Amino acid sequence: MGKYFRTDGVRGEANTVLGPRLVMEIGAAYAAVLEEEGKARPRIVVGRDSRWSGDMLEAAFTAGACARGADVLRAGLLPTPGVAYLARTLENVSGGVVISASHNPIGDNGLKLFSSKGFKVPDEIEDRVEACLESGAAWNNVPTGTGVGRVYDVADAESRFVDFLCAQAETLKGLRVVLDCAHGAAARVGPTVLRRLGAEVFVLHDEPDGARINVRCGSTDLSELQARVKDTGAHLGLAFDGDADRCLAVDEQGDKVDGDQMLLAFARKSPGNQILVSTVMSNLGLEMALREIGVEMRRAAVGDRYVLEEMLRCGSVLGGEQSGHVIFLDVSTTGDGVLTAVRLADTVRAAGQPLSALTRMPQVPQLLVNVTTPHKDRLDQDSEIAAAIAEIENRLRGRGRLLVRPSGTEPMVRVMAEGPDEAELHQVVGALVRLIEKNLS
C-alpha cells in the first residue's frame, strides 16, 4: 500500500485528510499518468455517491484534471460499477473515477480509479500517480488556451447502466422483494431495474441523502430489512452499501445471507468444472460445500481488486467476498451490487426454491472483531502482538485458523478466528484484541 492509495483507492475524512487541494492534485496526476500511457487528451468519466462532500471533491478533481488538459465526463450520482461500465463502453474514454467512501461513515469520502477497460487500475498505476503527486510533475508544462480540458455531462449515464442491468435477466415476475438502497448511489437505479424486470418491490431508504448514507440502513445494518421481509412475506431482501458495489441479502425467514452464501447459490446454479475465487475471510463451510458439487475454490487477499486479479489468473468467471462484493466476469469488470441483486433474485425465481435452501451450507464457527486504532500501521512492528498471534496459530493448527490484518479502508485492525469450538475462539480472540488495544492505542 502507498501513502495515499490503500486497498480500495484513496479514502479518509473529507475536507481534512481528503481535502479539495489533495483531490485536485490527484486529478492532475491521474491525467498526467494517462498522458504517459499515450492518451494525448485524456477523457475521464467521473461519478459519485450521495455524500455532501461529493460535489466539492468532484469539482476539485475536475479542476485538476482539466488543468492538466484532460476532458471530464460527469456521470453524476451513479453506482461505482456504473462508472466502470461507462469507462469501458463510452467512446474514446481513457479512464474513470468514482468519488465515494463506500460503506464508511458519512463524513468520509474517497476516490477509486478505473481504466478504460472498466477494471480498477493496478497497483503500478496508483504508484505512478503517487509519484507524480510527490514530485509535482503534473504541473510541469501545463496547457493553456484550447489545450485546457473541458467538462461535459453524460446525460444518459443512468439509463445506459439501467439498460445493461435489465438485460441480465429475462423476468423477475412473481417475486416479492424488499430493497434497501442505503440513501446512496443506487437509490434510483436499484428500484428502477427490479421493477422494470417485473418484481414487486418494497423500497427502503431510496432518497439519495448524504446526511443519512449508510446510517442504520443498507448492507451495514440489515435489521430494518429483516423485519420488512417478514412483515411483507417477501421472497428475499436485498441491501446495497453507499456506492452499490456490493450487496447483502436476507432470506424469506428474515435471516442474513452473506457473500459466501450468495456465491454458493450462484455456483449451485451451474456446478462442476469451474473455479470460484473468494478471499482469506471466507468461511471454511463455503469451501466444504463447493467441494461437494465439484467446484474448486481459490482464496485471494481481501479486496475485490485482488479477487479479480486471481480470477483473471485462473480463468474464473465467478468470485467475490463475504462482505458482498461479487464479480461476474462474464458480463462485468468489478463488484456490482445491483447486478448481484438481479442475479440472486433470478436464481431464486429459476430454482423455484426459497433462498434459505439455495444458500444452506455448513457453518464453521467464525469470530470477527474490528479493533479501532489510530495506529494500525504499527501492527507488523509489534513483537508482543506477533508472539501472541504465533501462539494462537499453533493452538489452532489443524483445527482452525487465525487472520489478523489492518483494514485497508478504515482505522482498525480486523481479527478473525475460525475453529470447531466457539468458546475457545472467544477466549483467544478476546485476549488478542485486548493486547492490540493496549499496544496500538
Your description of this structure?
There is one protein chain. The chain has helices at 20-36, 53-67, 80-89, 123-135, 157-166, 189-196, 223-232, 259-269, 284-292, 304-314, 337-351, 355-358, 383-396, 422-439; strands at 5-6, 9-13, 43-48, 71-77, 95-99, 108-115, 151-153, 176-180, 200-204, 236-240, 247-250, 256-257, 274-279, 295-300, 318-320, 326-328, 366-372, 401-406, 412-418. It is an alpha/beta fold and 441 residues long. It folds into 3 domains: 5-154, Alpha-D-Glucose-1,6-Bisphosphate, subunit A, domain 3 (Alpha-D-Glucose-1,6-Bisphosphate, Chain A, domain 3); 160-358, Alpha-D-Glucose-1,6-Bisphosphate, Chain A, domain 3 (3-Layer(aba) Sandwich); 366-439, TATA-Binding Protein (2-Layer Sandwich), CATH 3.30.310.50. β10 (236-240) and β11 (247-250) form a beta hairpin. It is globular, with a radius of gyration of 22 Å. The two termini are 22 Å apart. 51% of the residues are buried. The mean pLDDT is 95.
What structural category do the secondary elements indicate?
alpha/beta
Kindly provide the radius of gyration, computed on alpha-carbon positions and rounded to a whole number of angstroms.
22 Å
What would the principal axes of the Cα set say about the shape? globular
The CATH class designation of the largest domain is: Alpha Beta
Beta-strand share of residues: 15-25%
* Contiguous helical run count: 14
For CATH, the homologous superfamily of the largest domain is named as Alpha-D-Glucose-1,6-Bisphosphate, subunit A, domain 3
Average the pLDDT over all residues and give the rounded result: 95
Helix amount: 25-40%
Low-confidence stretches: none
CATH topology of the largest domain: Alpha-D-Glucose-1,6-Bisphosphate, Chain A, domain 3
